[in-house]
Amino acid sequence: MQVEDYILQGLIIGVCCLFLFAIQFLPSPGENEEPTIKGTPTEYEADPPMVEAQEAWIADDTPEDDELADLFEEYVICTNAEAGNQPDEGVRLVAAVILNRANRKLENVHKVISAPYQFSSYSDGGMQKWNNPPERIWRICREEFEHPTNLDVRFFRTGHFSEYGTPWKKVGDHYFSRR
Asked: Is the CB of residue 119 less than 8 Å from the CB of residue 113?
């Protein structure tokens, strides 16, 4: 056998192992379903939220709004864990990826962030480590939520462009792709 044959066999075995490993973590049909959250935020405070005033993000104090505020906080924490060390443009693009994949609805943020093999900071504990985002991250996430800057960016990763989407541009350490 030639070296190329061994490499090909190794790749096939590796892909099969990865597939078997992945399917053991997939939920069964109906498992882990979350209730649908009704309502959307309609009125926002003028100033961006600060870490000390996270609970005041939404002006209306209904139970649905509390849940939406928690989802907004999760979106900010994930953005911070994934891109807190990146330039503002990179932070904004990561925030856009999360919102675009959630169809720009806070109700979908947790499902997007917690989906298997999507956001490493969710699965590797990074969100717990970076759970106190600075004001800069809150401000950028708030701006991106209220005034989207890029509705096409869907994927990002470090090291190289994702195999999904159309490669677009590199910002900081991340390579961004559009749909």
From this structure: yes
